[in-house]
Design brief:
Elements: H1 2-23, H2 32-49, E1 71-73, E2 83-84, H3 87-94, E3 99-105, E4 108-115, E5 118-124, E6 130-132, H4 135-138, E7 154-161, H5 164-172, H6 184-192, H7 197-202, E8 206-215, H8 224-233, E9 241-244, H9 249-259, E10 267-274, H10 277-282, E11 293-296, E12 303-314, E13 319-331, E14 334-340, H11 344-350, E15 357-363, E16 367-373, E17 393-398, E18 401-406, H12 416-423, H13 435-443, H14 460-465, H15 471-484, E19 486-488, H16 489-495, H17 503-512, H18 517-522, H19 525-529, H20 536-547, H21 549-559, E20 563-565, E21 580-583, H22 593-602, E22 606-608, E23 617-619, H23 628-636, E24 640-641, H24 643-654
Parallel strand pairs: 2-11, 19-20, 21-22, 21-23, 23-24
Antiparallel strand pairs: 1-6, 3-9, 3-10, 4-5, 4-7, 7-8, 10-11, 12-13, 12-15, 13-14, 13-18, 15-16, 17-18
Helix pairs in contact: 1-2, 12-13, 16-17
Length: about 650
């Protein structure tokens, strides 16, 4: 008995730590599979011993909410659902009743209140008793009606989610690999709880109703399904559901399982709800669970295989992530051979060693994970040298999590930013060579310097075999590199990433030196400062870059891969010659600030990013703004003009 109580205490600590990390800090210290297993073990031991401690996660509905949003108590407590992984248990629970089977969505639960047809309040689930008021944010959810035809008081619950398609779109717009969001649930949680609802609006958050709490004066004929239909008629999107009985329940579960792969809405299981409202309410609730509904978690398909090796994948921050590579197995209809292990702490908890027999599964039927290690030979051979640069590695511990880092500041993997800039739209514009792809290629040793981007054909077989790639992706990349090899000198100079030398400065330098890169390389700081817009700091950055023979060698090898097209001499009227503009804020006459910048340059002017004493005008449609650029312009006596003023200036100059 003493050992069992000791184990209960240990399980409470482990599960609470994992729950806090997941729900409050948006990070994962163990897999869902491991969490569920520990939770189930704890619940079983508590039932067996009759010993339940106050801090047990089986007794807590959730964690205290964080943040500065106003807090409010729910009129009715929001309990979590009891769960099962057995279809037979679902049938037994349903009995001879009819039920509604729907997705268990993976987002953030929100309660909406309407008064006299108008959305008046939105509150997050929080800890089940107290939530955060997010009314302004809910008003910018993509599909939440602000006004409905029903004029009584309406209270309903639903899940705020970000669809996979929107999640991928948002991540694609983020160049920094380490800044990309980990999963839709974490992104949704942060988006819904923003203090600035403009950010929420940009995230494409959607709301799917799953329960009607109150609708005064409406008769739903004692049917939850009738409530769903009524909510749809009011303009709400609801969870997708199937009406089931004990006879067709298994078929319905299978149909949902088959739809998981193509489901755009993140889910982590199913929910079964009694259709008979009175019957469900008559069952009451436990301290933790309602009795009118139950959650179904997928019984993960688990396969046994052998761990071939651990692949260590460096990133630009120096973090080296472990990836388990194992003998291929079939899971949920696809072949998998790799699974992220996330960090050394998880490796140690699994006692993961090469050659071990492991079991693997797909979390939520999508993401490959290691379920267990059957032989547990122990962690060994953590690399002392970075797989990319050979630099010394170091194990660091942050918040109790052990991770591996490369300590070499010159590691190629840390230079992903510079390679990303080189391949970006305003530089060489190598379509498809994103930061994420570059990180993979650099980690695999395909790219060490700029010229290597034009020789991806040397690694054809390895690229085609990479996860997420294939023959078509490889061919597209090679074709994009070939197309990008025909370019202009300003693009090349900008792509080198010399501190402070943007595309506008690169164009000015090329004009001044008539496209002679060798002359530009040999130029002294004095010669450079004679160029309009090039001050001492930029001149020092330029000369310092080309004083390094290593950099010159990199540039020489790059130039051998390129065809530099001579840009047409700018002709016609140049009304803004010798003038420097800074653009800030939103624009109205032009599609975006880049288009306005290009227009200024076409008229002989220069557009830079910072207000200095050399700035001629600051363009800002909000002249009264308290932005840092406006303040700086006022300090220096730089005129602040609107787009309309700018166009009038152009007319005056063109006379």
């Amino acid at each position: 008995m003493e050992e069992k109580i000791k184990r209960i205490k240990e399980l409470i600590r482990l599960v609470n730590e994992a729950g806090k990390a997941y729900y409050q800090e948006d990070r994962e210290i163990m897999s869902n599979y491991e969490y569920d297993a520990l939770y189930d073990e704890l619940a079983a031991l508590e039932q067996e011993t009759g010993v339940i401690f106050a801090g047990s996660p089986t007794q807590n509905v959730g964690y205290q909410v964080l943040g500065e949003l106003p807090k409010e108590a729910h009129e009715r407590p929001m309990l979590s659902l009891n769960k099962t992984k057995s279809v037979d248990e679902l049938k037994e629970w349903l009995g001879d009743q009819e039920g509604l089977l729907s997705w268990k969505m993976d987002g953030l639960t929100v309660v909406l209140t309407y008064e006299n047809g108008v959305l008046t309040k939105a509150v997050t689930r929080g800890n089940g008793e107290i939530g955060e008021v997010i009314t302004n944010n809910a008003k910018v959810f993509v599909n939440v009606p602000l006004s409905i035809s029903y004029r009584g008081q309406l209270v309903l619950r639903g899940e705020a989610v970000i669809r996979y398609s929107d999640f991928e779109r948002i991540n694609e717009e983020i160049e920094d690999v380490d800044a990309k969001y980990k999963n839709p649930r974490n992104l949704c949680s942060g988006s819904v709880r923003q203090l600035n609802n403009e950010i929420t609006a940009s995230r494409s958050v959607r709301f799917y109703a799953f329960a009607l709490v109150k609708a005064e004066g409406e008769d739903f004929k004692n049917s939850r399904e009738a409530q769903f239909f009524w909510l749809r008629n009011q303009g709400f999107e609801t969870v997708d559901w199937k009406r089931v009985t004990g006879e067709n329940l298994s078929d319905a579960v299978r149909e949902f399982a088959e739809a998981v792969e193509d489901n755009d809405v993140p889910s982590d299981g199913l929910v079964l709800l009694y259709d008979d409202i009175a019957y469900g309410e008559s069952l009451g609730r436990t301290a933790k669970f309602p009795r009118d509904s139950i959650a179904f978690k997928w019984a993960d398909e688990v396969q046994e295989t052998t761990l071939s090796h651990i692949e260590w994948s460096p990133s630009r921050t120096g973090l080296i992530n472990p990836v388990a590579v194992f003998e291929p197995v079939e899971l949920e209809g696809t072949t998998v051979s790799r699974a992220s292990v996330h960090n050394i702490s998880i490796m140690e908890s699994l006692q993961l060693g090469v050659g071990d027999r492991i079991t693997v599964y797909k979390a939520n039927m999508i993401i490959p994970q290691i379920a267990d290690n059957l032989t547990r030979s122990g962690v060994k051979d953590i690399p002392e040298a970075c797989p990319v640069c050979g630099g010394k590695t170091q194990i660091r511990s942050l918040s109790g999590i052990k991770t591996l880092y490369c300590t070499n500041p010159d590691c190629q993997a840390k230079k992903i930013k510079s390679f990303t800039l080189f391949a970006s739209r305003d530089a060489l514009n190598i379509d498809g060579l994103s930061e994420a792809t570059l990180e993979k290629f650099i980690g695999a040793g395909f790219i060490h310097e700029y010229s290597d981007m034009f020789h991806l054909d040397r690694h054809r077989e390895a690229i085609v075999a990479m996860e997420g790639f294939g023959e078509k992706s490889y061919e597209n990349l090679v074709a994009a590199a070939k197309k990008a090899s025909v370019t202009t000198l300003p693009r090349v100079i900008y792509g080198l990433g010399i501190a402070g030398i943007g595309l506008a400065n690169a164009k000015v330098l090329c004009r001044q030196f008539r496209g002679d890169l060798n002359a530009m390389r040999r130029a002294s700081a004095e010669e450079l400062t004679e160029v309009d817009g090039i001050g001492g700091v930029l001149a020092d950055a330029w000369t310092g870059f080309f004083a390094d023979e290593k950099n010159n060698g990199i540039v020489d090898r790059l130039l051998k891969e390129l065809t530099i097209e001579k840009e047409e001499e700018e002709s016609g009227d140049q009304p803004f010659a010798g003038m420097t503009f800074v653009i800030t804020g939103s624009v109205e006459r032009f599609a975006n600030r880049k288009e306005l910048q290009a227009f200024i340059e076409s008229k002989g002017g220069k557009a830079t990013g910072s207000v200095t004493s050399k700035t001629t005008y600051l363009i800002n449609n909000d002249k009264a703004s308290s932005s840092s650029k406006n303040k700086k312009a006022k300090e220096l006596g730089i005129p602040i003009i609107s787009e309309e003023d700018f166009m009038k200036l152009l007319e005056e100059k063109q006379g």
